Amino acid sequence: MLASQFSYTCAALPAQNVADGITVKEQPLKISILWSPVPNAVQYELNISNALTGQQITAVQSIYATGYELDTGLLPETPDQLQWQVRGLDYNGNPISDYSPYKALGNSIINSDRPIPTTQFDKMAYTPLYPVYSWIPYLHAAKYTLRIYYDDGSNVPTHDKLLNEYQTDDTFDFYDPAAYTQAGKYYWTVQARDADNKPISRWSAPSYFSVTDKNIKVAALGDSITHGGGAISTPPGYTMYNWQTYSVVPILNIGYSGDTTGAMLHRFSKDVLPFHPRILVIMGGINDIRAGISADEAIQNLSAIRSLCLDNNIIPVMVTASPIYPEKMQRIDITPAPDWQRQLSLLNHWILSYPDSIDTYLLLADNQGLLKSSFTTDGLHPDAAGKKIIGETISTALLKKYPVILSRL
User: 218-401 domain in CATH 3.40.50.1110?
Assistant: First the structure.
């Protein structure tokens, strides 16, 4: 079943809305509809129908976010007469779930003049070191501005420190390139803009996240498989495709999408050492292998990471690199190196030569050594079932190998 929210604005935004110190152009009446992600759904289909007769009014397909905003001027009936439901679709637009139960379209009024954030940092044991922010696409928005603040605790917003400001084109998520290592409370906010970069919304309500550097037992250094996200369109700000979600052991996510082992090594000091975890889970290498970087080079980098861990009294725990499914990787315009399987085998053989290593490769691979097709949409990243296997396997192994360290979680 899909969890859902819905909203109906009872008046258009005024032409001179100067709240938040901005002037907002007049916008149409709109309804904001939200739902929870469907496992493995790449896109969604929204169905609007008459609440009394059940007759379909409109259907909207190719929705790649977990929500949609409707211009009420395009509806032939008032929202109070209508209902909505949604279902998940796969990469090719085929249904992979039943429609959700009908919900009344005009049931309640919420903040329609601001973008609606959808990140789930509050459901995570720790905020990822590199946050990914997401929101429901704002009606008629062409661009967005994001701001990230450090909250000084004074309860005076003007005292909060602006850390970063970003501009992005029409989208519904943003991968922050900044790492937040200073302990404290932060928040992010987003504003919708038109093609001329003029505001068409107020700033979204602050979405808070916190950073702690105290008593971090376990952290995970890796690439996008560690960073999270899946089914092509669902970003790491959601929990479903983050393998840490499925770990009984709380794990600080120090993954960064796109990383090679060289990049992981390069950022070790600035990203890992501020937290000084007792155990560091290290999972990387598939970006090297699929791009044609040799297993030897990846091994050198991972070996250097291990040495840095030992030099800093951190226990390194290696995890095998995941297999891939080349045919589906065409969906994200990636063609792996011809000898990727041989190089991956060499890399994983080295990883497994250490007694403290964890093997997730065998659980994800089919009898041809490929990532099981049912586990992936894009051929590179495991989706929900695959991430669950990774998270549970790592969690079980850590609890078995390091019961004393993890006994007071």
Answer: yes
pLDDT of residue 21: 52
Contact between 227 and 253 (Cβ < 8 Å):
yes
The residue ranking higher by pLDDT, 329 or 160, is 329
Domain 4-104 and domain 121-211 have a common topology = yes
Query: What's the half-sphere exposure (Cβ side, CA atoms, 13 Å) at 195?
Result: 1
The two tokens of residue 399 are 């609890």
Question: In the structure encoding, which two tokens stand for residue 70, read together?
Answer: 């409707």
Q: Which long-range contacts (CB under 8 A, 24 or more apart) does 395-399 make?
A: 395/246, 395/247, 395/248, 395/249, 397/317, 397/358, 398/218, 398/247, 398/249, 398/279, 398/281, 398/317, 399/248, 399/249
User: For residue 377, what pLDDT band results from cuts at 50, 70 and 90?
Assistant: very high
H, E, C per residue of 244-277: HHHCCCCCEEEECCCCCHHHHHHCHHHHCCCCCC
Q: What's the token pair of residue 307?
A: 């040495």
Q: Write the CATH number of the domain with boundaries 4-104.
A: 2.60.40.10
Q: What is the CATH number of domain 121-211?
A: 2.60.40.10
Q: What is the mean pLDDT of the chain?
A: 91
When computed from its CA atoms, the radius of gyration of the chain, rounded to whole angstroms, is 23
The predicted pLDDT at position 354 comes to 95
Helices (H) and strands (E) in the chain, counts: 9, 17
Tokens standing for residue 188: 């992010």
Residues 14-55: pLDDT tens digits? Answer: 333 434 555 565 555 888 999 999 999 999 999 999 999 999
Q: Alpha carbon of 167 to those of 136, 157, 193, 207: distances in Å?
A: 16, 22, 10, 18
Count of positions (residues) in the chain: 409
**Tell me, what's the pLDDT at 19?**
43
The domain limits of the chain are 4-104, 121-211, 218-401
- What percentage of the chain has pLDDT greater than the value 70? 91
Q: Do 27 and 12 meet the contact criterion of CB atoms below 8 Å apart?
A: yes
pTM of the model: 0.91
